[in-house]
């Protein structure tokens, strides 16, 4: 579990607490002591809880380095998300609501997450990651626990676009072997989602020591693997999920693969023709022509 005084947001508040006005200190102490309440509050609700004005809340947020309340709230959300256990998440998930309500809420939250992805991502940073994936070197894609689902999807999709892709599990200790014997110019992509398995942090540190290029795709600026990254992309979720929110990251991965494919020219057709030939020769995929030896009318 994250130590509160090591989190950037809590550090900012703690470092500023003595310089704040008395009302500002009340806000700071409330947020440090009750972050799980504060994260869901509007400026009005936070002001009322601390018996200060909304203007005081706005000044407080600016005083600790955030241009907008939404930026402060996202940082607080990332902190709370990392801290929450499964039981904590169950408490805030409202499992007693009718199924239709939960369905609509789930869809609405994912729409919010995608809107945030659309508004927040740095196009230049995405282009830089595609440049790295376009190098004619081995690419290793690694995930663990929830993020392995996304890592597997990314690696699988990349194999349809270029060669020399390896998908690896962070929990498999032989991953250390593969990275150690990989060429020094290899690219390693680590996909990391909250609550950030320690094995991915160790692998990030190893990649850094080996001098390979590390790309980190994650859901928060507080991801501990980011300290080792040469390039990174953050698909932050706006809401705190019960188990996970893979939609923004899968959308980002789709873009990266599609953009990479657009750069391959004729080589892409050659690569995919080889794959299709192999599928056909080895009877890998269902084909309607094989149904009773004829194509259905």
List the keywords.
single chain, 297 residues, alpha/beta, Arc Repressor Mutant, subunit A, Rossmann fold, five-stranded parallel beta sheet, 14 helices, 5 strands, 56% helix, carbohydrate derivative binding, transcription regulation, DNA-binding transcription factor activity, transcription
Describe the fold and architecture:
This protein is α/β, with parallel strands linked by helices and about 300 residues long. It folds into 2 domains: about 5-85, Orthogonal Bundle (Arc Repressor Mutant, subunit A), CATH 1.10.10; about 120-280, Glucose-6-phosphate isomerase like protein, domain 1 (Rossmann fold, 3-Layer(aba) Sandwich). About 55% of the residues lie in helices and about 10% in strands. It contains 14 helices and 5 strands. Helix 10 (about 145-160) links the parallel strand 1 (about 140-145) and strand 2 (about 165-170). Helix 4 crosses helix 5 and helix 8 (about 100-120) packs across helix 13 (about 245-260). The chain is elongated and about 75 Å long.
How are the SSEs ordered, and which strands pair?
Elements: H1 8-16, H2 22-33, H3 35-38, H4 43-50, H5 54-63, H6 69-83, H7 86-92, H8 99-120, H9 123-133, E1 139-143, H10 146-159, E2 165-169, H11 174-181, E3 187-192, H12 198-210, E4 213-218, E5 231-234, H13 247-262, H14 266-281
Parallel strand pairs: 1-2, 1-3, 3-4, 4-5
Helix pairs in contact: 2-5, 4-5, 8-13, 9-13, 10-13
